[in-house]
Write a structure and sequence with these properties.
By secondary structure, the protein is of the alpha/beta class. Helix content is 34%, strand content 11%. Strands 1-7-6-2-3 form a 5-stranded parallel beta sheet. Helix 7 packs across helix 12. The relative contact order is 0.12.
Length: 328
């Protein structure tokens, strides 16, 4: 066989009509696969409902429209390690007036959300320690000031850490955000006169979400608590549904059906307005969140809670255990 000349070797390959059709089919198949891969690789900018999962958050760590904010109670928790990219809220200074007992003013809260880098098109995900108690408090304050694009990381730090998902101790200042907050919505908050009016008129269901021992007056507060009252017991007519009954072992909320059944068994079905309270308003925020955001009930958080009510002069109290304050 004689060797091919350079001219013969460079001769173009010839295709028939059938070959072109087959190539078009193959190219189309590759395009479909590529489009699917791209669609599944691009994180969603929102997840339906008031909760997001740990899996969803990890997939959205690089999504610029998803803003993660930690609200924990234990000092140094955030600094030792947090979800990558998260900003931090110090609940006892950032979310409150540090002189008088009140939530942060509108102006102070506006500065906070700007510093956190929150924008009008952001999906804001709050999470924290202690089963998201203070993250839920944060969600309540955000709602008071009209910020609606707020979700809780279901299970909070507890679930994130249990699943050995990434943590980072680096903190970068966020680019100032453009989110504009509204005037405070007073319909989300109960004050002492509102609670006393509900006691007399029974026009709202009052829910005490503390432990049975706190509710019955056996103890004034959980061990180690600094914020105390000088009277033990509960608000007359209040029903006791401890916050922990609403969560699973991993810290996530139980299903909507389970929650509805739990509260219905206590006479809470959303047919009447609801007022929730605890000791300082953080545990009750957890219950406020699920009753409002998951079950859709009309709920006000009494953030004054037992440290206000149990220290108020002349208000009615039910003290089943009969515990008397001894000055210590």
């Amino acid at each position: 066989m004689r060797p091919q000349s350079r001219h013969e070797r460079a001769r173009p390959v010839q295709f028939n009509t059938g070959d072109f059709k087959e190539m078009k089919i193959i190219a189309l198949a590759f395009a479909v696969v590529a489009a699917f891969a791209t669609a599944t690789a691009v994180p969603a900018t929102a997840q339906e409902g008031p909760l997001v999962t740990t899996d969803w958050v990890e997939k959205n760590l690089n999504n610029p429209k998803v803003k993660l904010v930690e609200v924990s109670v234990e000092p140094g928790q955030f600094e030792r390690g947090h979800i990558p990219g998260a900003q931090n809220i110090v609940w006892h200074t950032d979310l409150v007036d540090t002189v008088k007992r009140d939530i942060a003013s509108k102006d102070k809260f506006q500065e906070l959300v700007k510093k956190l880098g929150l924008n009008n098109d952001s999906t804001i995900v709050l999470y924290g320690d202690n089963n998201n108690w203070f993250a839920a408090w944060g969600a309540w304050v955000f709602d008071v000031y009209g910020v609606k694009s707020v979700k809780l990381l279901d299970g909070g730090r507890k679930k994130w850490e249990a699943e050995k998902r990434p943590l980072d101790n680096r903190v970068e200042a966020a680019k100032p955000g453009n989110l504009v907050v509204s005037d405070a919505n007073t319909k989300l908050r109960a004050r002492l006169p509102d609670v006393l009016a509900a006691v007399d008129s029974k026009n709202a269901v009052i829910v005490d979400i503390r432990s049975p021992d706190e509710y019955n007056g056996k103890v004034f507060a959980p061990a180690g608590s600094q914020e105390l009252s000088i009277r033990a017991g509960h608000v007359p007519g209040a029903v006791n549904v401890t916050w922990s009954k609403a969560v699973a072992a991993d810290g996530t909320f139980k299903s909507k059906e389970e929650l509805k059944k739990l509260y219905a068994e206590a006479g809470i079905d959303g047919s009447k307005p609801i007022i929730v309270y605890c000791r300082i308003g953080e545990r009750s925020s957890h219950t406020w969140f699920l009753l409002t955001k998951i079950l859709g009930y009309d709920v006000r958080n009494y953030d004054g809670s037992w440290t206000e009510y149990g220290n108020a002069v002349g208000v009615p109290v039910v003290n089943v255990a009969g515990t008397v304050w001894g000055g210590k």
